[in-house]
Amino acid sequence: xxxxxxxxxxxxxxxxxxxxxxxxxxxxxxxxxxxxxxxxxxxxxxxxxxxxxxxxxxxxxxxxxxxxxxxxxxxxxxxxxxxxxxxxxxxxxxxxxxxxxxxxxxxxxxxxxxxxxxxxxxxxxxxxxxxxxxxxxxxxxxxxxxxxxxxxxxxxxxxxxxxxxxxxxxxxxxxxxxxxxxxxxxxxxxxxxxxxxxxxxxxxxxxxxxxxxxxxxxxxxxxxxxxxxxxxxxxxxxxxxxxxxxxxxxxxxxxxxxxxxxxxxxxxxxxxxxxxxxxxxxxxxxxxxxxxxxxxxxxxxxxxxxxxxxxxxxxxxxxxxxxxxxxxxxxxxxxxxxxxxxxxxxxxxxxxxxxxxxxxxxxxxxxxxxxx
Length: 372
Prior knowledge:
This is D-amino acid dehydrogenase. The protein is an alpha+beta fold. The chain has nine helices and 22 strands. A hairpin with a 3-residue loop joins strand 18 (270-272) and strand 19 (276-278). The protein is globular, with a radius of gyration of 21 Å.
């Protein structure tokens, strides 16, 4: 048996479930502690574009590429996977942002990522669901290696795996209390009567992670914001590729609907955790109209649903992963790119917890970088 025999994971989003599954796969006892349905869980409202497209340090890009490889292995092992697809992505921008897109595409091409420029005709040939007239005057970046994952279904798969491994599931009625003795984590206090003892604890509670770390005097800077995800069914054939237009991002879903995300719409969300979050109907209509503009036949949308949740963003926009240096046995997994990074981060973190060796791949992402 490993030296660490019991691990408590706080949080049941894609990072929490992925870490729990990897630890359980290695034979350790796992307790997953999370609210019954957390409206703040980003994983349930994630756009979930799988990519290594954005400008980032080489160490961050390497992690994303490794995680994409892990997802492809999952797709190969679990085929068919209607909830996990690699049918490419197309990105295009207005003139004021074209220069930065050109620079990024050139960098990706040099790195061997496979990015290529398409004119409007090539784009429609690659993705017939696009409206050719709407693309007049645009050149698009095509990346065939990118894809998407429906996180609710992936989370279901991870839960099934944990059940098969004998994991214990504990409902958190409120934020738990971390218990520490002699600079070592001893477990998690759920309520007055329930204490979960542990050899190691992993905090993967999304937007709630910084608050939990403050209990033990650890500062985790965050720029967490609130995001709106719209899902809807198009009257026309759904695209296969991820589409990243200047004003809207569109991706297919396993059930035939589309996920729609617009950063300008995020700013229209109002409310609070205490009173609930809201978005005006005309904002939702504007999102679907923006999507229709780029799709062939300018389709109508039905079955329109909205999801609003917190989007956890580390203060320096890089993942925060690894043991908290000041508290032995306490680790954290916190990232804005959790959908893309979950397979590789969970693999590396589980290895560190159970083997006691630090992965060089996580050197740039440890929580200690924020220490005063």
